[in-house]
Structure formats: C-alpha cells, structure tokens
C-alpha cells in the first residue's frame, strides 16, 4: 500500500524576516569594515607623511656695547609765548604788522583810536600848568608871610594832583599803542581795522622760537639720575633724520602723586625756527656708563600676553627610516626650531636686547614665525631679511 507524501510547507514569514535581517547585517558590516580599514590606512598615511620644511630667515644673537640711555616723550614749548592783548579798549585805527613775520621787542603792532583821550590830555596838561603857576605864586607869598603855610601847601598838593591826572591820561594813551613784549614770530591776526576791541581781547599770537624748551615726564626712578646740565637729544616726526641736542635746564623737585612722574625741562637751540611749540618730541638722554648686551632683531620675538618667545634654530640628526617628501630615505642632518621664552629689555632701532633666555651665538628665526612649531624642520633663506638696523631710515619710494 503506497503511503502518500506530505506536501512541503512554505517558510514562515518570521523566518524570512530573520534571514533578511541577517543578510542586511552581514552586508552593512562588510561595508563598514572596508571603510574602517580604508580610513585607518589613510590616517596612518597622513600621520607618517613627512611635513615640508618651513622657509625662514635667521639671525645670530650677538653682543653689542650699549650705553644706558633713557627715553621719554616730550612736548616743545616756547621760551616766551603769549596772545598779545590790549589793556585798554578802543577802535582799531592802524595795524602795523604782517601775520607770520618776526618782530623785535617794542615794535608797534596796533594803534587804537585816541582822539578823545588826547583832547582830555590837553585839558589836563593845561590844568596842571595852571596849578603849577599857582603853587609857585603861593609859595612865594608864604615866604613873604603874606599867606599861611597851609594855603601854600594846599596849592602844592593841587598842582601834584593835576600833574598826576595828566600822567594817568598819558599812560592810558600809551596803552592804546600795542607793542611786542618780546622778540619772536607773530601768528595770524585776530582783529580788523575799525573793529572795537575790549580790554583783554586777543590780537595776535607771539612765540619766541630760539631757543625753545622741550618738557618731558619721567618715572620717579630717574629722580636721582637726571641732573641739570646733562645732554639730551630730541627728534620730531615732522623732521625725519634730524636730531637736536640740548641741555637739561630745570628739573621739577616734586613728583606727581597721581602718575608718580616728575617733569624735566631741556633747552634746545632753534636758529632756523624749524621746531614749533606744541609739537611732539622723542627725547633720549645718557644715564652714564656702558654695558654689553645680547641683541637680536625685533622681528625674531613673538610678543605674547603670557610671555615673549623666540624660535631657536639648531642642527639635529635624522631618525632612522625618515623619508623625504618623495618617499625616499632622507640622509644627513636637519635644522629644527625650538620655542624658548625670553626676557626682553631696551630697544634701539630694529634691535632689541635679551636679558635672559638666549646666549650669544645662538641662531633664531626672524621671519615666518606664525607657521613654526616645536621640532618643526626649517630651511634658511637669508636672501631677503627684515630690517635690523640700530638707526633705521625710511626711504621714499
């Protein structure tokens, strides 16, 4: 008897879902595995890829002998400078000066109208003459005892009073002739013909330019080092390349409580009048004595809030198996930079002193500092270097 076979059952839906999930996991797992291997190899390649050396210029720290110079910022001031004014008011009758011209002391600048004052003066002079005649007459009568001494003395007093009134009127007229109080250079006039000016009204500026003062402030630490008669040098931005020498003529004995600075004043010769009052001036002076200092160009120093640093260039041997940019084995020594913090001191021109952290003869990078890091390989190219002059001069191009 033949037993009929059982029909095959189709896989359940649940089993199919499980198989599909396993297949998807295997597929995506393989993709991520391949990607991970590729990424790891790429990272290893870039991590081990040699960095191209940075091109820098360099300078060698050297010893120079510098004098102990002090520096300050000053302001030029005239020996005598004022706004010429009038003591008496009146109408401008004549202007006898040219703006911007030099004048001598006592030169007439302006004349005011004095017609009324001169008429009054003539009346007072006549009264004074009459009083003098009466004084003399009564004195003679008093000698002959024809009048009392008191009457004679009263006439003498009246004569003196009348003469004083005439002299006062004469002084008032003199005040209406405005003269230069000292020799100097005039500014721009501030009045016009026919204008009424009141007492104290400015007429024109007058400045004595030769010699000229330079006033500058210094910290109290210099109080014992700065003496009258010491030489100073001054420069102004308006006259590049020129230096003016002078001597300290006054030192303020008082230190400002707010700034802890004191003021010094030096006198400069200014025969050509090229220095003008109110101008900004750089002042330098010798404190006496010289010392050896280590100097490098200022461009070699990275000035940071947390400290100043330089990149010192040194020669080192290459590691075994090191390759160049083409993947070929690299041989020979290489130049690397190490960042080192230093203490800086005074500056002079393009140079700066290093008081701590650098020895004479050590080589430092002077350009391309932003692209450097510790142990970075460098190549020196000194065909073009930053300026490193102790007295740099700007050229017109």
How would you characterize this protein structure?
With 397 residues, the protein is of the alpha+beta class. It has four domains: 54-66 and 292-380, Beta Barrel (conserved putative lor/sdh protein from methanococcus maripaludis s2 fold); 70-79 and 207-290, Efflux pump adaptor protein, beta barrel domain (Elongation Factor Tu (Ef-tu), domain 3, Beta Barrel); 88-110 and 179-205, OB fold (Dihydrolipoamide Acetyltransferase, E2P) (Beta Barrel); 114-175, Helix Hairpins (Orthogonal Bundle), CATH 1.10.287. The chain is built from three helices and 21 strands. It has helices spanning 13-48, 115-143, 149-175; strands at 54-56, 58-60, 62-78, 81-85, 90-95, 102-103, 108-112, 177-179, 184-186, 196-197, 202-207, 212-219, 231-235, 244-251, 261-268, 280-297, 308-317, 333-348, 351-356, 363-365, 376-380. The strands form three sheets. It has a six-stranded antiparallel β-barrel. A hairpin with an 8-residue loop joins strand 13 (231-235) and strand 14. Helix 2 runs antiparallel to helix 3 (149-175). The radius of gyration is 46 Å and the shape is elongated.
Q: How would the blueprint of this fold be written?
A:
Elements: H1 13-48, E1 54-56, E2 58-60, E3 62-78, E4 81-85, E5 90-95, E6 102-103, E7 108-112, H2 115-143, H3 149-175, E8 177-179, E9 184-186, E10 196-197, E11 202-207, E12 212-219, E13 231-235, E14 244-251, E15 261-268, E16 280-297, E17 308-317, E18 333-348, E19 351-356, E20 363-365, E21 376-380
Parallel strand pairs: 1-21
Antiparallel strand pairs: 2-20, 3-12, 3-16, 4-11, 5-7, 5-10, 6-9, 7-8, 9-11, 12-15, 13-14, 13-16, 14-15, 16-19, 17-18, 17-20, 18-19, 18-21
Helix pairs in contact: 2-3
């Amino acid at each position: 008897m033949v037993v009929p076979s059982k029909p095959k059952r189709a896989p359940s839906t649940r089993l199919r879902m499980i198989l599909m999930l396993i297949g998807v996991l295997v597929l995506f797992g393989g993709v991520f595995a391949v990607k991970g291997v590729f990424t790891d190899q790429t990272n290893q390649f870039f991590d081990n890829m040699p960095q191209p050396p940075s091109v820098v210029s360099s300078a060698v720290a050297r010893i120079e002998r510098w004098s102990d110079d002090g520096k300050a910022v000053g302001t030029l001031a005239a020996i005598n400078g004022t706004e010429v004014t009038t003591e008496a008011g009146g109408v401008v009758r004549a202007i006898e000066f040219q703006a911007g011209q030099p004048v001598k002391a006592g030169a007439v600048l302006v004349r005011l109208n004095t017609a009324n004052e001169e008429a009054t003066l003539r009346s007072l002079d006549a009264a004074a003459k009459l009083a003098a005649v009466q004084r003399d007459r009564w004195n003679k009568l008093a000698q002959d005892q024809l009048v009392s001494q008191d009457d004679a003395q009263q006439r003498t007093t009246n004569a003196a009073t009348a003469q004083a009134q005439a002299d006062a009127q004469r002084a008032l007229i003199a005040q209406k002739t405005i003269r230069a109080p000292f020799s100097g250079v005039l500014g721009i006039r501030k009045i016009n013909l026919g204008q009424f000016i009141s007492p104290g009204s400015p007429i024109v500026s007058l400045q004595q330019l030769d010699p000229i003062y330079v006033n500058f402030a210094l910290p109290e630490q210099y109080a014992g080092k700065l003496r009258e008669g010491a030489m100073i040098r001054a420069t102004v931005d308006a006259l590049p390349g020129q230096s003016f020498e002078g001597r300290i003529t006054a030192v303020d004995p008082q230190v400002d409580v707010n700034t802890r600075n004191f003021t010094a004043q030096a006198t400069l010769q200014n025969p050509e009048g090229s220095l003008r009052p109110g101008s900004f001036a750089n002042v330098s002076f010798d404190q006496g004595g010289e010392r050896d200092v280590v100097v490098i160009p200022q461009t070699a120093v990275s000035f940071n809030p947390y400290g100043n640093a330089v990149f010192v260039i040194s020669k080192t041997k290459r590691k075994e198996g090191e390759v160049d940019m083409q993947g070929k084995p690299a041989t020979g020594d290489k130049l690397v930079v190490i960042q080192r913090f230093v203490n800086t001191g005074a500056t002079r021109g393009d140079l700066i002193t290093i008081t701590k952290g650098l020895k004479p003869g050590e080589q430092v990078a002077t350009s391309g500092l932003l692209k450097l890091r510790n142990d970075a390989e460098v190549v020196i190219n000194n065909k073009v270097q930053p300026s490193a002059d102790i007295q740099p001069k700007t050229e017109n191009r």
